[in-house]
Specification:
The protein is an all-alpha fold. The chain is built from 4 helices and no strands. Keywords: Membrane, Transmembrane, Transmembrane helix.
């Protein structure tokens, strides 16, 4: 089995997994867009040897199918950055929410002690 066909099967498998995860509600649609776009791009590159060979020649890569893994690696780096950005944003929201909760709790306790 050629590495190109193997990568095509893997990409199709990931695509089906992403679509099924969205359908079951495990993965939100807005987060699946990047996965779907990447699967389509890698699927096109995997299914057409001429494109991957021309691209490899243009980039000076000796073994053309290794470009599929390069693009996959670049995608994963992009995903790690995107997820880190989202975690950072959620962390800031959590800190803000905790501070707001502490202020409201203190205000509630102060009002309760004034009534007693």
């Amino acid at each position: 089995m050629s590495i190109i066909w193997l990568s095509l099967f893997i990409v199709v498998g990931i695509f089906i997994f992403v679509i099924e995860s969205v359908r079951r509600g495990i993965l939100e649609t807005k987060y699946s867009i990047l996965w779907i776009i990447t699967c389509v791009c890698l699927g096109i590159l995997s299914s057409n040897e001429a494109i991957i060979n021309k691209l490899a020649h243009w980039l000076g890569v000796y073994y053309a199918p290794s470009l599929l893994f390069l693009f996959g690696l670049l995608f994963l780096l992009f995903m790690v950055f995107d997820l880190t950005r989202r975690v950072s944003k959620l962390n800031h929201q959590l800190v803000s929410l905790a501070q707001e909760y502490a202020l409201l709790k203190q205000k509630y306790e102060n009002e309760g002690s004034k009534k007693s």
